[in-house]
Design a protein that fits this description.
The chain has ten helices and ten strands. By secondary structure, it is an alpha/beta fold. Strands 6-7-8-3-9-10 form a six-stranded mixed sheet, sandwiched between helices. Strands 2-1-4-5 form a four-stranded antiparallel sheet, covered by helices on one side. Helix 4 runs parallel beside helix 6. Residues about 1-20 have low confidence and may be disordered. The protein binds adenosine-5'-triphosphate. Adenosine-5'-triphosphate (ATP) binds near residues 36 and 61.
Length: about 250
């Protein structure tokens, strides 16, 4: 799939959000859990600096796809390249160092650590972590007054914002978001999408967004892939895909 056009940069992690995303190219990816094969040959391309959606019913393999990209699952066959470099066989911290940040489903905020401590965990270096934190607070203003509170005391929506802000502390050039609105109220969902749209517009990072709320995915992404049982069965402009009610009721039921 080609998700629009964009310019690939050849820089390092330090390039960060300000200077450009990189292309993500996946070919014939096969992976799973132990002996169980879950993805049976996925191919997709997200061009540099573009935002793609991944939609599909429960169990389609969306989370598994993100886990393979960020190195949490071994690749059995196929390739994953980001910015021209293979991610296959690399450890998660090496992949993170190449500019990949993954916000998993369920937030995974450390409940007993303060918001500030959670944020610092996302910084690759101690030296400039305060500067990085200050930068994120310009976008995630809701966290500003809560820096000394334990993460577990934040509301669900605030924890989701914390998880995303923490991921952005590393200045990623590829941001993997797994159902960021899961469990949020409509108001918080709107607030979060407003922030995500702002981050998308202000950065050249490449985004891969897994989202069950298809209308929201269409707002934020240009192209989407529709997955079913470990395969990509359709790749299309998000708005066109989302308006094909017949297709969606067949595959998202
Ligand atoms: P959801 O929207 O429900 O999160 P999904 O599209 O993200 O669905 P995955 O979570 O990737 O789907 O799951 C794909 C398949 O892999 C499912 O059949 C699921 O049961 C299986 N699976 C997921 N995690 C594991 C695991 N740890 N061990 C074995 N099988 C798993």
């Amino acid at each position: 799939m080609t998700a629009g056009s964009g310019s690939a940069a050849n820089g390092s992690e330090a390039d960060g959000l300000a200077q450009g995303g990189k292309a993500l190219v996946i070919r014939d990816l096969v992976t799973g859990y132990g002996e169980i094969e879950v993805l049976h040959g996925i191919s997709l391309t997200a061009e540099a600096g573009r935002c793609i959606g991944v939609v599909g019913a429960n169990g389609a393999g969306k989370t598994t796809l993100l886990r393979a990209i960020s190195g949490l699952l071994p690749v059995k066959q196929g390739s994953i390249e980001f910015g021209g470099q293979s991610l296959v066989g690399r450890k998660t911290h090496e992949i993170a160092r190449l500019g990949v940040a993954h916000v998993p489903e369920g937030r995974q905020v450390l409940q007993h650590l303060t918001v500030r401590e959670n944020m610092y965990l996302g910084s690759p270096s101690k030296a400039d972590r305060q500067e990085r934190l200050d930068r994120q607070l310009e976008t995630f203003q809701v966290l500003r007054d809560k820096l000394d509170q334990p993460g577990g005391q934040l509301s669900g929506g605030q924890q989701q914002m914390l998880a995303i802000a923490r991921a952005l502390m590393s200045n990623p050039t590829l941001l993997l978001l797994d159902e960021p609105t899961l469990g949020l109220s409509p108001k918080l969902t709107d607030d979060l999408y407003y922030l995500l749209a702002r981050i998308r517009d202000e950065s050249n990072a490449t985004f891969v967004l897994v989202e069950q709320n298809i209308a929201l995915a269409a707002d934020l992404t240009e192209y989407s892939v529709l997955m079913q049982r470990g395969r990509v069965i359709r790749t299309e402009q998000s708005k066109a895909l989302m308006s094909d009610k017949e297709l969606l009721s067949a595959y998202l039921a």
